[in-house]
């Protein structure tokens, strides 16, 4: 995790490729950088919503809004 202009950013290495997305879960504002990485997904530590690190898309709720890739 790093900060850019007061924005919390998650940087993840997936099989040698780097992906960056907002580190704040759109569901309940959990810090995704404190969640678990599981292959190509990140799991929110609050309600376990899963997001694709490659696309930012919600893979499993309760989140309904996609994450934001950078």
Strand and helix map with partners:
Blueprint: E1 2-4, E2 7-14, E3 17-22, E4 36-38, E5 41-43, E6 50-52, E7 58-60
Antiparallel strand pairs: 1-2, 2-3, 4-5, 5-6, 6-7
Question: How far apart are the termini?
Answer: 13 Å
Strands of the largest sheet, in order across it?
4-5-6-7
Question: How would you characterize the largest beta sheet?
Answer: 4 strands, antiparallel
The shape is globular
Average predicted local confidence, pLDDT: 91
Give the tally of β-strands. 7
Portion of residues within helices:
under 10%
What's the Cα radius of gyration?
Answer: 11 Å
Key words describing this protein structure:
70 residues, mainly beta, four-stranded antiparallel sheet, 7 strands
What is the compact description of this entry?
With 70 residues, this protein is mainly beta. 0% of the residues lie in helices and 41% in strands.
Report on the structure:
This protein has 70 residues and is mainly β. The protein is 0% helix and 41% strand. It contains no helices and seven strands. The strands form two sheets. Strands 4-5-6-7 form a four-stranded antiparallel beta sheet, with no helix packed on it. It has a three-stranded antiparallel beta sheet with strand order 1-2-3, with no helix packed on it. A hairpin with a 6-residue loop joins strand 5 and strand 6. The chain is globular. It starts with a strand and ends in a 10-residue tail after the last strand.
